[in-house]
Design a protein that fits this description.
The protein is mainly alpha-helical and 309 residues long. The chain is 52% helix and 5% strand. It has 13 helices and 5 strands. A 3-stranded antiparallel β-sheet has the order 1-2-5, with no helix packed on it. Helix 6 packs parallel to helix 10. The longest helix has 20 residues. The N and C termini lie far apart (70 Å).
Length: 309
Protein backbone atom coordinates (compact mmCIF):
# COMPACT_ATOMS: atom_id res chain seq x y z
CA UNK A 1 0.00 0.00 0.00
CA UNK A 2 2.85 2.40 0.78
CA UNK A 3 4.16 4.15 -2.28
CA UNK A 4 6.64 6.39 -0.48
CA UNK A 5 9.09 5.86 2.31
CA UNK A 6 7.43 5.30 5.65
CA UNK A 7 9.14 8.35 7.11
CA UNK A 8 7.80 10.80 4.51
CA UNK A 9 4.19 9.85 3.84
CA UNK A 10 1.67 12.48 4.91
CA UNK A 11 -1.31 11.62 7.10
CA UNK A 12 -3.85 12.59 4.45
CA UNK A 13 -1.95 10.60 1.80
CA UNK A 14 -2.08 7.48 3.99
CA UNK A 15 -5.76 8.05 4.72
CA UNK A 16 -6.52 8.39 1.01
CA UNK A 17 -4.67 5.16 0.20
CA UNK A 18 -6.46 3.43 3.09
CA UNK A 19 -9.88 4.55 1.82
CA UNK A 20 -9.34 3.24 -1.70
CA UNK A 21 -7.74 0.00 -0.50
CA UNK A 22 -10.21 -0.98 2.22
CA UNK A 23 -13.41 1.01 1.65
CA UNK A 24 -13.91 1.47 -2.08
CA UNK A 25 -16.32 -1.20 -3.29
CA UNK A 26 -16.90 -2.41 0.27
CA UNK A 27 -19.20 0.38 1.50
CA UNK A 28 -22.23 2.08 0.00
CA UNK A 29 -21.81 5.17 -2.16
CA UNK A 30 -23.22 7.44 0.53
CA UNK A 31 -20.69 6.11 3.05
CA UNK A 32 -17.86 6.45 0.56
CA UNK A 33 -18.79 10.11 0.06
CA UNK A 34 -18.49 10.65 3.80
CA UNK A 35 -14.97 9.17 3.79
CA UNK A 36 -14.00 11.42 0.89
CA UNK A 37 -15.40 14.43 2.73
CA UNK A 38 -13.29 13.50 5.77
CA UNK A 39 -10.28 13.30 3.44
CA UNK A 40 -10.96 16.85 2.19
CA UNK A 41 -11.16 18.15 5.76
CA UNK A 42 -7.92 16.34 6.60
CA UNK A 43 -6.13 17.82 3.59
CA UNK A 44 -7.26 21.29 4.65
CA UNK A 45 -6.54 21.00 8.39
CA UNK A 46 -3.32 18.98 8.29
CA UNK A 47 -1.73 19.44 4.85
CA UNK A 48 1.83 18.90 6.07
CA UNK A 49 1.34 16.48 8.98
CA UNK A 50 3.32 13.28 8.52
CA UNK A 51 1.85 9.97 9.60
CA UNK A 52 4.87 9.07 11.73
CA UNK A 53 4.74 12.46 13.48
CA UNK A 54 1.19 11.89 14.68
CA UNK A 55 1.04 11.74 18.48
CA UNK A 56 -1.75 12.39 21.00
CA UNK A 57 -1.18 16.12 21.16
CA UNK A 58 -1.06 16.50 17.37
CA UNK A 59 -4.19 14.39 16.95
CA UNK A 60 -6.08 16.28 19.67
CA UNK A 61 -5.13 19.58 18.01
CA UNK A 62 -6.46 18.25 14.70
CA UNK A 63 -9.81 17.36 16.30
CA UNK A 64 -9.97 20.70 18.11
CA UNK A 65 -9.44 22.56 14.83
CA UNK A 66 -12.21 20.55 13.20
CA UNK A 67 -14.53 21.08 16.18
CA UNK A 68 -14.28 24.87 15.90
CA UNK A 69 -16.64 24.82 12.92
CA UNK A 70 -18.60 21.62 13.51
CA UNK A 71 -21.01 20.19 16.06
CA UNK A 72 -19.84 17.56 18.53
CA UNK A 73 -21.55 14.64 16.76
CA UNK A 74 -19.98 15.63 13.44
CA UNK A 75 -16.59 15.81 15.16
CA UNK A 76 -17.21 12.34 16.60
CA UNK A 77 -17.95 10.97 13.11
CA UNK A 78 -14.77 12.62 11.76
CA UNK A 79 -12.78 11.02 14.59
CA UNK A 80 -14.22 7.54 14.06
CA UNK A 81 -13.32 7.51 10.36
CA UNK A 82 -9.77 8.67 11.00
CA UNK A 83 -9.36 6.24 13.88
CA UNK A 84 -10.13 3.28 11.62
CA UNK A 85 -7.19 4.12 9.39
CA UNK A 86 -4.88 4.96 12.30
CA UNK A 87 -5.54 1.64 14.04
CA UNK A 88 -4.65 -0.17 10.81
CA UNK A 89 -1.43 1.86 10.62
CA UNK A 90 -0.60 0.58 14.12
CA UNK A 91 -1.34 -3.01 13.08
CA UNK A 92 0.92 -2.52 10.05
CA UNK A 93 3.76 -1.39 12.31
CA UNK A 94 3.77 2.18 11.01
CA UNK A 95 2.90 3.69 14.39
CA UNK A 96 4.11 2.51 17.79
CA UNK A 97 1.33 4.04 19.90
CA UNK A 98 -2.32 4.89 19.45
CA UNK A 99 -2.58 8.71 19.16
CA UNK A 100 -6.38 8.51 19.46
CA UNK A 101 -6.27 7.07 22.99
CA UNK A 102 -8.26 9.09 25.56
CA UNK A 103 -9.18 11.68 22.95
CA UNK A 104 -11.53 14.49 24.00
CA UNK A 105 -14.36 15.20 21.57
CA UNK A 106 -15.41 18.83 21.40
CA UNK A 107 -17.66 20.78 19.07
CA UNK A 108 -20.06 23.65 18.64
CA UNK A 109 -23.35 23.63 20.49
CA UNK A 110 -25.93 21.71 18.50
CA UNK A 111 -28.23 23.94 16.51
CA UNK A 112 -31.94 23.81 17.20
CA UNK A 113 -33.54 20.97 15.30
CA UNK A 114 -36.96 20.63 13.78
CA UNK A 115 -39.40 18.36 15.61
CA UNK A 116 -38.25 14.82 14.95
CA UNK A 117 -41.35 12.90 15.89
CA UNK A 118 -45.06 13.16 16.61
CA UNK A 119 -46.97 11.95 19.63
CA UNK A 120 -49.74 9.39 19.26
CA UNK A 121 -52.55 11.94 18.98
CA UNK A 122 -50.66 13.93 16.33
CA UNK A 123 -49.88 10.80 14.31
CA UNK A 124 -53.55 9.80 14.38
CA UNK A 125 -54.48 13.24 13.00
CA UNK A 126 -51.91 12.84 10.22
CA UNK A 127 -53.13 9.37 9.27
CA UNK A 128 -56.73 10.61 9.20
CA UNK A 129 -55.66 13.32 6.72
CA UNK A 130 -54.06 10.86 4.29
CA UNK A 131 -55.84 10.16 1.01
CA UNK A 132 -55.76 6.38 1.12
CA UNK A 133 -57.35 5.42 -2.19
CA UNK A 134 -57.98 1.98 -3.61
CA UNK A 135 -54.72 2.16 -5.56
CA UNK A 136 -51.14 2.54 -4.33
CA UNK A 137 -50.03 6.14 -3.90
CA UNK A 138 -47.53 8.11 -1.82
CA UNK A 139 -50.04 8.45 1.02
CA UNK A 140 -49.89 4.68 1.42
CA UNK A 141 -46.10 5.01 1.53
CA UNK A 142 -46.44 7.48 4.41
CA UNK A 143 -48.80 5.09 6.17
CA UNK A 144 -46.45 2.11 5.76
CA UNK A 145 -43.42 4.00 7.13
CA UNK A 146 -45.46 5.23 10.10
CA UNK A 147 -46.59 1.67 10.85
CA UNK A 148 -43.23 -0.07 10.32
CA UNK A 149 -40.44 2.44 10.93
CA UNK A 150 -38.83 1.72 7.56
CA UNK A 151 -36.10 3.91 6.12
CA UNK A 152 -37.25 5.82 3.03
CA UNK A 153 -34.94 3.82 0.72
CA UNK A 154 -36.22 0.55 2.23
CA UNK A 155 -39.86 1.47 1.70
CA UNK A 156 -39.25 2.29 -1.97
CA UNK A 157 -37.75 -1.17 -2.53
CA UNK A 158 -40.80 -3.03 -1.22
CA UNK A 159 -42.27 -5.49 -3.73
CA UNK A 160 -45.39 -7.68 -3.42
CA UNK A 161 -43.25 -10.76 -2.79
CA UNK A 162 -41.83 -9.10 0.34
CA UNK A 163 -45.20 -9.47 2.09
CA UNK A 164 -46.13 -12.63 4.00
CA UNK A 165 -49.77 -11.92 4.76
CA UNK A 166 -50.46 -15.27 6.42
CA UNK A 167 -47.95 -14.38 9.15
CA UNK A 168 -48.42 -10.59 8.93
CA UNK A 169 -44.72 -10.12 8.17
CA UNK A 170 -42.86 -7.74 5.86
CA UNK A 171 -39.39 -8.85 4.71
CA UNK A 172 -36.69 -6.21 4.28
CA UNK A 173 -33.70 -7.34 2.21
CA UNK A 174 -32.85 -4.47 -0.14
CA UNK A 175 -33.18 -0.72 -0.71
CA UNK A 176 -33.94 1.50 -3.69
CA UNK A 177 -31.26 3.86 -4.99
CA UNK A 178 -33.52 6.92 -5.28
CA UNK A 179 -30.52 9.27 -5.38
CA UNK A 180 -29.50 7.88 -8.76
CA UNK A 181 -31.34 9.03 -11.93
CA UNK A 182 -31.70 5.41 -13.01
CA UNK A 183 -32.77 4.06 -9.61
CA UNK A 184 -32.44 0.33 -9.04
CA UNK A 185 -32.20 -2.09 -6.13
CA UNK A 186 -29.15 -2.01 -3.86
CA UNK A 187 -28.07 -3.68 -0.59
CA UNK A 188 -29.37 -2.62 2.81
CA UNK A 189 -27.45 -0.19 5.02
CA UNK A 190 -25.99 -3.06 7.06
CA UNK A 191 -26.57 -6.77 7.76
CA UNK A 192 -28.85 -5.95 10.68
CA UNK A 193 -31.12 -4.09 8.26
CA UNK A 194 -32.06 -7.40 6.66
CA UNK A 195 -35.00 -8.28 8.87
CA UNK A 196 -38.64 -9.31 9.30
CA UNK A 197 -41.09 -6.67 10.52
CA UNK A 198 -44.34 -7.75 12.12
CA UNK A 199 -47.37 -5.81 10.84
CA UNK A 200 -50.71 -5.21 12.53
CA UNK A 201 -53.62 -7.09 10.99
CA UNK A 202 -55.32 -3.97 9.60
CA UNK A 203 -52.24 -2.84 7.67
CA UNK A 204 -51.68 -6.39 6.39
CA UNK A 205 -55.26 -6.64 5.10
CA UNK A 206 -55.09 -3.21 3.45
CA UNK A 207 -51.92 -4.01 1.52
CA UNK A 208 -53.11 -7.49 0.61
CA UNK A 209 -55.94 -5.84 -1.32
CA UNK A 210 -53.80 -3.04 -2.76
CA UNK A 211 -51.06 -5.19 -4.30
CA UNK A 212 -52.91 -8.36 -5.32
CA UNK A 213 -52.67 -7.56 -9.05
CA UNK A 214 -49.19 -6.00 -9.09
CA UNK A 215 -46.04 -7.70 -10.48
CA UNK A 216 -44.46 -9.76 -7.73
CA UNK A 217 -40.87 -8.56 -8.05
CA UNK A 218 -41.33 -4.88 -8.93
CA UNK A 219 -41.35 -2.04 -6.37
CA UNK A 220 -44.91 -1.04 -5.54
CA UNK A 221 -44.22 2.68 -4.94
CA UNK A 222 -41.78 3.48 -7.74
CA UNK A 223 -43.16 5.11 -10.85
CA UNK A 224 -40.20 6.86 -12.42
CA UNK A 225 -37.74 9.09 -10.54
CA UNK A 226 -38.61 9.70 -6.88
CA UNK A 227 -37.25 12.43 -4.61
CA UNK A 228 -37.60 12.43 -0.84
CA UNK A 229 -38.40 16.16 -1.13
CA UNK A 230 -41.64 15.18 -2.89
CA UNK A 231 -42.76 13.16 0.14
CA UNK A 232 -41.50 15.79 2.57
CA UNK A 233 -43.50 18.51 0.78
CA UNK A 234 -46.62 16.35 0.95
CA UNK A 235 -46.02 15.70 4.65
CA UNK A 236 -45.52 19.39 5.33
CA UNK A 237 -48.82 20.20 3.65
CA UNK A 238 -50.72 17.52 5.57
CA UNK A 239 -49.17 18.49 8.92
CA UNK A 240 -50.14 22.11 8.33
CA UNK A 241 -53.68 21.08 7.38
CA UNK A 242 -54.25 19.32 10.73
CA UNK A 243 -52.19 21.79 12.82
CA UNK A 244 -49.49 19.43 14.04
CA UNK A 245 -45.67 19.88 14.05
CA UNK A 246 -44.14 19.51 10.59
CA UNK A 247 -41.92 16.44 10.28
CA UNK A 248 -39.94 14.83 7.49
CA UNK A 249 -40.34 11.34 6.08
CA UNK A 250 -37.43 10.28 8.32
CA UNK A 251 -39.38 11.82 11.19
CA UNK A 252 -42.03 9.16 10.60
CA UNK A 253 -39.37 6.55 11.44
CA UNK A 254 -38.52 8.44 14.63
CA UNK A 255 -42.22 8.68 15.43
CA UNK A 256 -42.65 4.93 15.05
CA UNK A 257 -39.72 4.13 17.34
CA UNK A 258 -40.66 6.77 19.93
CA UNK A 259 -44.25 5.55 20.25
CA UNK A 260 -43.07 1.96 20.70
CA UNK A 261 -40.70 3.02 23.48
CA UNK A 262 -43.44 5.00 25.22
CA UNK A 263 -45.68 1.92 24.89
CA UNK A 264 -43.15 -0.11 26.89
CA UNK A 265 -41.48 -2.03 24.06
CA UNK A 266 -37.90 -2.93 25.00
CA UNK A 267 -35.02 -0.97 23.48
CA UNK A 268 -33.62 -4.24 22.07
CA UNK A 269 -36.86 -5.01 20.21
CA UNK A 270 -37.05 -1.47 18.83
CA UNK A 271 -33.42 -1.71 17.65
CA UNK A 272 -34.15 -4.96 15.77
CA UNK A 273 -37.31 -3.53 14.23
CA UNK A 274 -35.45 -0.45 12.99
CA UNK A 275 -32.57 -2.52 11.64
CA UNK A 276 -29.92 -0.77 13.71
CA UNK A 277 -26.47 -2.36 13.62
CA UNK A 278 -26.30 -2.31 17.42
CA UNK A 279 -28.42 -1.28 20.38
CA UNK A 280 -26.05 1.61 21.15
CA UNK A 281 -27.29 3.45 18.07
CA UNK A 282 -30.87 3.17 19.30
CA UNK A 283 -29.93 4.25 22.82
CA UNK A 284 -28.08 7.32 21.52
CA UNK A 285 -30.86 8.35 19.12
CA UNK A 286 -33.64 8.04 21.69
CA UNK A 287 -31.70 8.92 24.84
CA UNK A 288 -34.15 11.64 25.87
CA UNK A 289 -37.07 9.21 25.74
CA UNK A 290 -35.16 6.50 27.61
CA UNK A 291 -34.27 8.98 30.35
CA UNK A 292 -37.88 10.08 30.63
CA UNK A 293 -39.04 6.48 30.93
CA UNK A 294 -36.34 5.76 33.52
CA UNK A 295 -37.62 8.66 35.64
CA UNK A 296 -41.11 7.15 35.54
CA UNK A 297 -39.66 3.76 36.49
CA UNK A 298 -37.84 5.31 39.44
CA UNK A 299 -41.13 6.69 40.72
CA UNK A 300 -42.69 3.24 40.40
CA UNK A 301 -39.75 1.70 42.27
CA UNK A 302 -39.99 4.21 45.13
CA UNK A 303 -43.76 3.80 45.40
CA UNK A 304 -43.35 0.02 45.51
CA UNK A 305 -40.57 0.06 48.09
CA UNK A 306 -42.51 2.48 50.25
CA UNK A 307 -45.22 -0.13 50.61
CA UNK A 308 -42.85 -2.75 52.04
CA UNK A 309 -42.73 -3.08 55.84
Amino acid sequence: MMKKGQSSILLHEYFKQWIFLYKKGAVRDVTMRKYLMTLKHLQHLAPETKLLALDRKEYQKLLNDFAETHERQTTMDFHHQLKGAILDAIDDGLLNRDPTRKVVIKGKEASSKKTKYLNQCELQKLIARLELNEEINFDWLIMLIAKTGLRFSESLAITPEDFDFSNQVLYISQTWNYKSPIGGFQPTKNKSSIRKIQMDWRTAMQFATLIKNLPQNEPIFVRGRIFNSTINDKLESYCADVSIPIISVHGLRHTHASLLLYAGVSIASVARRLGHANITTTQHTYLHIIQELENKDNNKIINYLSGLY
